[in-house]
Write a structure and sequence with these properties.
It catalyses: (3S)-hydroxyhexanoyl-CoA = (2E)-hexenoyl-CoA + H2O; a (3E)-enoyl-CoA = a 4-saturated (2E)-enoyl-CoA; a (3Z)-enoyl-CoA = a 4-saturated (2E)-enoyl-CoA; (3E,5Z)-tetradecadienoyl-CoA = (2E,5Z)-tetradecadienoyl-CoA. GO terms for molecular function: (3S)-3-hydroxyacyl-CoA dehydrogenase (NAD+) activity; delta(3)-delta(2)-enoyl-CoA isomerase activity; enoyl-CoA hydratase activity. It holds the Pfam family ECH_1. By secondary structure, the protein is α/β, with parallel strands linked by helices. The protein has one domain: 2-enoyl-CoA Hydratase, Chain A, domain 1. It has 7 helices and 7 strands; from the N terminus they run H-E-H-E-E-H-E-E-H-H-E-H-E-H. The strands form 2 sheets. The chain has a 4-stranded parallel sheet with strand order 1-2-4-7, with helices on both faces. Strands 3-5-6 form a 3-stranded mixed sheet. Helix 1 packs parallel to helix 2 and helix 4 packs across helix 5. The longest helix has 16 residues. The radius of gyration is 15 Å and the shape is globular.
């Protein structure tokens, strides 16, 4: 939603400008990272002017490490946000994927470029073209996430951020 995009953009800009902030952690609410965009909004006349691609570029270019704390699901645009982060920590029960292809849509926020860089072309093509969801343990083996935890994902992401 526009509110989420705006809040993330404002938070990242504020963190980058604040010398006391050493790293940024992005997490979802209620045990879910992000299910991505509401596709009904794509055809709305009130579509947000901001794009997910702009936010993702802002995350990637942050001067400070940005860590994604992935719980529940990171799908579609949610996974693309996580891909833009410098590091990713996932809960062992988390799932990731780009399901929009099942609706005839290609990932539109550079996920098709970032995913192959992280996990290689064959595995990325499989996820991109089939909409396949993968569990956190497979994501770790592929290199999509840096760490998988059974504990509090937010705390683990903060520890990783402090380490880097």
């Amino acid at each position: 939603s526009l509110a989420v995009l705006q809040a993330l953009e404002d938070g990242l800009k504020k963190a980058d400008a604040d010398p006391s902030v050493k790293a940024v952690m992005i997490c979802g609410e209620n045990g879910k990272f992000s299910a991505g965009a509401d596709i009904q909004g794509f055809s709305s006349a009130n579509r947000p002017v901001r794009s997910l691609g702009t936010l993702i570029s802002l995350i990637e270019s942050s001067k400070k490490p940005v860590v994604a704390a992935i719980e529940g699901i990171a799908l579609g645009g949610g996974l693309e946000v996580a891909l833009a982060c410098h590091y990713r920590v996932a809960h062992v029960k988390a799932w990731m994927g780009l399901p929009e292809v099942k609706l005839g849509l290609l990932p539109g926020a550079e996920g098709t470029q970032r995913l192959p860089r992280l996990i290689g072309v064959p595995a990325a093509l499989d996820m991109i073209t089939t909409g396949k969801h993968i569990p956190a343990t497979e994501a770790l083996k592929l290199g999509l996430v840096d760490e998988v935890v059974e504990e509090n994902t937010v705390e683990a992401a903060i520890r990783l951020a402090n380490k880097v």
